[in-house]
Amino acid sequence: MPYGKTNRESVESANVGGGADFWNPPEGESRIRVMPPWDEQAEEFWFVTGTHFNVGPDERPVPCPDLSGVADSCFLCRLVKRLARGDEDEAAEAEAMGARPRYLLNIVDLEKPQDGVQVWPAPKTIFRQLKKYWLNEEDYGDFTSFKEGFDIIIDKTGSGINTKYDSTPTRPKEFPSDKLINHRSDTVGEMYEQLANEEFELPNLAEVQGFQSDEEMERTYKGLSGGRSRTEENGGSDPEPEPEPEAEPEQTEADPEPEQTETDPEPEAEAKPRRRRRAAAEEPEETAADPEAEPEPKPRRRRAATSEKADPEPAAAPKRRARKAAPKSGSKAEAGSSRVRGRVKDLE
Questions:
Q1: Omega before 249 within 30 of 0, i.e. cis
Q2: Could you write out the three-class secondary structure of 83-112?
Q3: Lowest-pLDDT choice from 75-79, 124-128, 211-215, 259-263
Q4: Which domain range does residue 97 map to?
Q5: 262 is a domain residue
Q6: pLDDT on residue 339
């Protein structure tokens, strides 16, 4: 199928402001060739899109349907606005997750021609330079032309938020070169020959991204994917949802705590005597002194009584002695009486 031709008005009106991670240039210099529009109806060699980076616990890139013109709103865009009004941590999260414009380009990495045509979500700094090259017809012109175009050298330095890109155009060169068409791999050579004849189907940049719905973006943000959590995908969380039923037996074990309620009456019984003691402590001077002083002297009086009873026992002895002495004080006539008779008198 024949390819399209880039429209000048499209380049002039293109806003610098893209995409998905397909081809990522390595650090250092890379030599690429930018492909023309993917079909006859297309008038632009790029497709403007946007990407939310650092989404969720996996820090995934998620295409923005709003910046890409696919939808009028985006869940992550609304979330970023809400977080930006929060505290310092939420504002930092919003800044890291905000959508950044990208420009999708069909390119061929001439360092790795066997990878064929790839999609590169180029940053706006690169697209701004490419726009200048294309509009400068005197020195450069349409670099996507197979016959009159030229290669672009991409220079990447740094990493993360400190990554910087720069580009340098080369002299015009026919594409694809004989070296590519006569590639040692027949399949690779055939592919570039199809490109030269405009028979190779280039990726439709408007359809290469898989946009998510608001519900899917929310699940991605929460660490869920395809109905499964991120930890479930690692195979380690299947037992984790089951602890809830396991927690129920633990609660049943906690149900013996009502058994502790059976022991609760014990502290209540302890509380009652404490109250009585406190009550006794409140009236100690009125009642405690009388009953406590009375029982103590009672045993003393009883001991005294026992001592008085002990005294008559020795008094009985003198009585017996008096009785024995009675016959001595009696008449002499009775002294000759028999012992038996004397005993009878003693009994009387």
A1: no
A2: HHCCCHHHHHHHHHHCEEEEEEEEEEECCC
A3: 259-263
A4: 8-225
A5: no
A6: 55
